[in-house]
Amino acid sequence: MSTVVSSVEKEGENVGLHRFALFTACCTAFLIFVGGLVTSTESGLSVPDWPTTYGWNMFAFPFSKWVGGIFFEHSHRLVASFVGFLTVVLTLWTWFGERRTWVRWLAVAALAAVILQGVLGGLTVLLLLPAPVSTLHACLAQTFFCLVISIALFTSPSWKQGLPLIKSHAESIPLQTLCAATTALIYVQLILGALMRHTNSGLAIPDFPLAFGRIIPPFTSEKIVIHFSHRVGATLVAVMVLWTFSRIARSYSESRLLFRPALAMTILLAIQISLGALTVWTAKAVIPTTAHVATGALVLGTSLLLTLRTFAMMSVRIPAWK
Amino acid sequence: MRNRLMFVSSSILVLALAGCGGGGNNTPSLPPAPGGAPSAGGGAAPSATGTVTGKIAFEGTPPPNEKIQMSADPYCQQHNPNATTETVKVSNGGLENVIIYVKNAPAASYPAPSNPVLIDQHDCHYVPHVFTIQTNQPLKIKNSDSTLHNIHAWAEKNMPFNIGQPVQNMETQKSFTTEEMPLPIRCDVHKWMGAFVGVFPHPYHTVSKEGGQYELKLPAGNYEIVAWHEKYGQQTGMVTVADNGKAELNLTFKADAKTSD
Fold first, then answer.
1. How many separate domains does chain B show?
2. B24-32 long-range Cβ contacts below 8 angstroms, 24+ apart
3. Which single residue of A7, A64, A312, B186 has CA 20 to 30 Å from A227?
4. Which of B12, B166, B191 sits opposite A55 (nearest CB)?
5. Final residue in a domain of this structure, among A109, A140, A162
6. What range does the domain containing A272 cover?
7. Does B9 touch chain A (CB under 8 A)?
């Protein structure tokens, strides 16, 4: 159904930069998992000072003292520092090794985001985990992840050489719009998820798939409202993801650049919903709860990748009657 | 109140992030003081010449205190290998660690004692597990362990704090300015470490000891006495105390009562 038209651009390749950005993205995904562990184990305040650790320089804190909740919180700080370092290198490398100005500024934005993220992490400790700051910290983590994924995509040789163009079919909602809406909805859903975690609303509705044995729960507390909003969001995300996947499978399955991320996103969604159910059924056991956070980031990242590709590849529309 | 504030603030955050604009004032306001609390700035404190004694009895079979798994910290594991929870401590039919206080203390200005109340982190436990303190009375926090502890006061009406004590025998002094009951204290490093403190603007409070026994020194008058336990909630009773008189008030918690978990 899809038609490959041409490559549009040839540019000098900087495979090293692309691979480094990819590595940074992988480390960021790991960091999101480690950060999720801190909340899941309720270890966020087990190191009460920042940027020091019990008065020690963070990097000199003795390993023998990584006990109890300190292990999770201190590990998070160190992995975050490593990702911060990678981002500094990525920004410098992009600034001096990349010709496209907008990509260079995108790297600067990633650097600004990671610095702000570090400050928010510190504030959330010093202010004793206020829900708005902790939620913002969680959301900015997802935003930063998206920025790094974008840089990895934009610096990839295939992107720089020009992705193969595809003639899109005349549809009431263009695929690009559908993908963008899906990505935006996933992001909103992740905000709701962060809000649920940081207001301790994860078990406000203790059963699943029903809510207090009903379809619609009694809204007797703010926590129930937040929790149920997340479930409604999950349903909407599932509809959008399946809609996107079915559209691509039906009309653009020949394009592996679109089909693969669409398939991956759908599989990740199935895993994500299962993990969400497990989180409730196990009363927020550490591993499923944390994996739910990390998989959410992967769903978002995959959807973003797909969206950016659709915008790059789909420029010519084929009338529906052809 | 705090949850409501969190909800409002967080909702604003969501709207802002979703591009709907908005903003908000996240400054928490103090919840209203509970009814019956004496107002500050009254006259001189009356002489506490009367005595109320009694027993906090426990009916039924107390649930066993569970063994604490301390393997997360080798120091704790080594120094307190047989530690158990202290939630329900019953001796001679009496319930220990119950906070007993007067709800309707005479309105007066009660000067804060200068002697500090001590809470020690010893063998990865808080000692004592439950205690009371008067507003503005010094609270001395000590770490007797050769391992890191953080002491985190989960206050809602007072200013919460979270401080680290990485060095053995380190001491820190704090105080609470507002009545708050109960105020949980936790170590975020060692999840099993928890304590409760009752903060009162007057001196009429204590904690039940062995056998559930307690004693309160009170001025003459009629009083509503409250007994609070971390698992079983609270019981109340009325007592009349004469000048230089003695009165007795016994209260009972039942094992099958609805818990406050």
1. 1
2. B26/A130, B26/A132, B28/B2, B29/B1, B29/B5, B30/B157, B30/B178, B31/B1, B31/B2, B31/B156, B31/B157
3. B186
4. B166
5. A162
6. 164-322
7. yes
Report yes or no on A283 lying in a domain: yes
Q: Is residue B14 domain-resident?
A: no
Radius of gyration of chain A (CA): 21
Q: Is the same domain home to A278 and A138?
A: no
How many independent structural domains does chain A possess? Answer: 2
Residue A131 sits in the same domain as residue A203 = no
What pTM value is reported for the model? Answer: 0.82
Could you say which of A128, A162, A196 is where a domain stops? A162
Distances (CA, A) of A220 to A199, A204, A205: 16, 10, 11
| pLDDT tens for each residue of B61-110 | 999 888 999 988 999 999 999 899 999 999 999 999 999 999 999 999 99
B15 burial level (CB within 10 Å; 0-12, 13-18, 19+):
middle
Under an 8 A CB cutoff, do B191 and A69 touch?
A: yes
Give the helix ranges, DSSP H, for B58-113: 74-79
**B14 touches A193 (CB < 8 A):** no
* Cα–Cα dist A265/A299, whole Å: 6
Nearest CA-CA distance, residue A249 and chain B, Å: 30
Residues 172-201 of A with CB under 8 A from B: 188, 191-192, 195, 198-199
Q: How far is CA A55 from CA B143, B151, B225, in A?
A: 16, 15, 45
Q: Which residue range(s) make up the domain with B158?
A: 49-254
Query: Do A181 and A215 meet the contact criterion of CB atoms below 8 Å apart?
Result: no
Q: Are the C-beta atoms of residues A78 and A58 closer than 8 Å to each other? A: yes
Please judge whether A48 and B3 are an interchain contact, meaning their C-beta atoms are less than 8 angstroms apart: no
pLDDT at residue A316, rounded to an integer: 54
In a domain, residue B33? The reply is: no
Specify whether A87 is located in the same domain as A213: no
| H-run or E-run covering A163 | none
Is ipTM strictly over 0.85?
no
Report yes or no on B31 lying in a domain: no
Asked if A68 and B190 come within 8 Å (Cβ–Cβ), the reply is: yes
Residues A64 and A192 in one domain: no
Give A24-63 pLDDT, tens digit per residue.
999 999 999 999 999 999 999 999 999 999 999 999 999 9
In 3D space, the residue among B192, B244, B233, B238 whose CA is nearest the CA of residue B84 turns out to be B192
Say which of A45, A49, A222 has its CB closest to residue B3. Answer: A222
Q: Give the pLDDT confidence of A257-311 residue by residue, as tens digits.
A: 999 999 999 999 999 999 999 999 999 999 999 999 999 999 999 999 999 999 9
Locate all alpha helices (DSSP H) within B91-178, ordered by sequence.
none
| 3-state SS, residue B141 | strand
Is B247 in contact with B222 (CB distance < 8 Å)? no
Q: What is the CATH number of the domain that holds B181?
A: 2.60.40.420
Beta-carbon contacts of residue A210 (< 8 Å; ≥ 6 apart)? none
Angle value at C-alpha A119, between A153 and A64, nearest 5 degrees: 95
| Cβ contacts of A49 on chain B, cutoff 8 Å | 164
> Nearest-CA residue of chain B relative to A132?
B10
